[in-house]
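Example record for the data management plan.
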Amino acid sequence: MNGFLYVASQSSAYYKAAVHSAISLRDNYPEANITLFTHEVLLQESDRKYFDKIETGIPIHKRAKMYAMARTPYENTLYLDADTEIRSENIKKVFDILGKNDIMFTRIIPKVSKDTVIDRNNNLEYHGGVILYNSKKLTLQLMQDWYETYLIQDTCQWDQSPFAKYNPRMKPWDQFTIWYLLNADPKYKKVKHAMFPSGGHSYNFINLLENYEEFNEVEQIVYHYTIPRDRVANAFYISPKSGFNSNFN
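Corresponding structural encoding:
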């Protein structure tokens, strides 16, 4: 079974965005299988109709997405960031792209991204917002290690960590973590990973691409915007340290 996976962690702004995206997916692909991972406190019962499956109990963490991705109920999964909108029925064709690959990414475009330099020979390429993958044992272990390794990366003293030889500006980025696992961890040498055809920009059309003429003809199958930070912070927000505020906006 193929299916789509959303994760809404910490902020009701992400939760509401995920619901909006699922509605747009249903509009373009009514029979899609859709799973949402979120927190019980964010869940609105009236939204259950948009999903086939809802899982709660995820970690209160900004990168809970990797934890959830490792627990997909599907044989093949398209993970979608919450702040996306499906704009074309061609979303139905996405699983045909996977082929014999285990995991596929859309390509980062440096001019609309920050801090892409990993070291002298490598740059960030894998975008973390739209990811297509299978549920082979090694692939799901990769997802779990992605989450657990990011926890180390996020809290370590960089110059005394396994990542010390890489650009310290990589520390916040989970895209670096997946690059590190696929390229520096021998456990994952057998994982077949690739880019979406033509960089996959149709399936991850970053809103900033609208400012560049060369992307005018790219079909926007999945439109990817960014929720303003103040909206995230001012919404009902769950903090791992201090609980949550009381404003469900």
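Summary line stored alongside the record: The chain has one domain: 2-244.
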